[in-house]
Write a structure and sequence with these properties.
By secondary structure, the chain is an alpha/beta fold. Helices cover 34% and strands 29% of the residues. The radius of gyration is 18 Å and the shape is globular. The two termini are 35 Å apart.
């Protein structure tokens, strides 16, 4: 079972950004994409999840054999896709608890209701694991949160929703070392044979805590190199100039 991107081309307005991306993320593996600014990394994650600003002009995306491009954003989420944003959005007036409860309720068959006691028990357990104050359950989603608090909240959402494929777009951006360790702990706790991950990052430091099975380098809208963790180390040491060699 895999998330498969085949010859994906996409544009925004009249600007082509993805120029033939090929990538396969099997369940049970963590893949990382690194690359310079403007290479198309974040665009790829947004297109996989159905961002309306982008137009796919060629290629396919399939998830366990299902055509992802035929699904709307909500259907992709229900099918098992999750995107953690580089800049998590604030949702004024909606508490964390109500947001998570509504998201989980939407995944249940018609007529079924969430067990409130079990829901709160599970949520508090995961918040404790992520070292989040339980008072955050009553606060509006991400409103007034620090950068680190927003990123922990994204990981809490991921842990509660239990997706099949997790896309993390620069989750390490703006995190101090303590927050980075907590976020990495949350991600590592979800590693499983039936779940795949795609980490998008500029820096090796995230991959020091979340060891990827494969590292890919993206440049000018394409995957140009793939390898093991040593590829991330080469990037850290030499920068992207090594791609010219």
């Amino acid at each position: 079972m895999s998330l498969v991107i085949n010859n994906l081309h996409a544009k925004i307005a009249d600007t082509e950004i993805l120029k033939g991306v090929n990538l396969e993320i099997p369940t049970g593996e963590i893949h990382a994409i690194m690359g310079p600014n403007g290479s198309g990394k974040s665009t790829l994650s947004k297109i996989i999840c159905g961002h309306e600003d982008y137009e796919v002009t060629a290629g396919t995306i399939t998830m366990d054999g299902q055509d992802v491009l035929e699904l709307d954003v909500d259907e992709r989420s229900r099918a098992g896709l999750f995107l953690a944003f580089q800049y998590p959005m604030e949702v004024p007036g909606v508490s964390n608890a109500n947001f998570l409860r509504a998201a989980l309720q939407a995944r249940l068959p018609k007529g079924e209701e969430i067990d409130a006691v079990k829901f709160y028990h599970t949520m508090y357990e995961k918040m404790d694991f992520l070292e989040m104050d339980r008072k955050f359950t009553g606060r509006a989603v991400n409103e007034g949160f620090s950068g680190g608090e927003k990123k922990r909240n994204e990981i809490l959402q991921m842990m509660m929703l239990d997706p099949r494929y997790c896309l993390l777009d620069e989750t390490d951006s703006g995190l101090d070392i303590d927050a980075l360790k907590v976020v990495a702990k949350g991600v590592n706790s979800m590693r499983a044979e039936n779940r795949g991950f795609l980490l998008i990052t500029h820096y090796q430091r995230l991959l020091d805590y979340i060891k990827p099975d494969k590292v890919h380098v993206m440049a000018d809208g394409q995957i140009v190199r793939s390898g093991g963790f040593e590829l991330a180390e080469t990037l850290e040491a030499e920068g992207y100039d090594f791609l010219k060699s």
